[in-house]
Amino acid sequence: MKSKYFVLLLLVFVLALPPLSTAGDFDGTRPLVCTVIDFTECTMEEGCHRVAPEEVNLPRIFWIDVKNKIIKDREKDEGEGSRKSPIRSVQRIDNKLVLQGAEQGYENIQDGFGWTIAIMEDTGRMVLTASGDLVGNVAFGVCTPY
pTM score > 0.85 for this model? Predict the structure, then answer.
């Protein structure tokens, strides 16, 4: 448990430093670690409100490997409980790396959704959007090469 807090503290410290990376670091050629900073959920009934990513089962930190077309909630595969999401589409558009995918959700529950992640190639800033059954989510964050 202490190692999780150490990694989170280290990541916050690294993200607070002036950018040392180049635009090529965010074009999909290098693996990235991303941190969700702000998260909003919108529904038809309740409108939009901020929630903690954990409330909707989104990890605050996740790893992106464009080369292998995978997003995961842990840097290393740690067996049971480790989650992965396949990247179905990769495009570079207008200085953005755009990744897309879809998730089935839980068995016997209609909770599948589609997602898009746009990473700005000059800064590593990121926007994640996801939509499902009458719900939409927007997350803002930042990525850094690892």
Answer: no
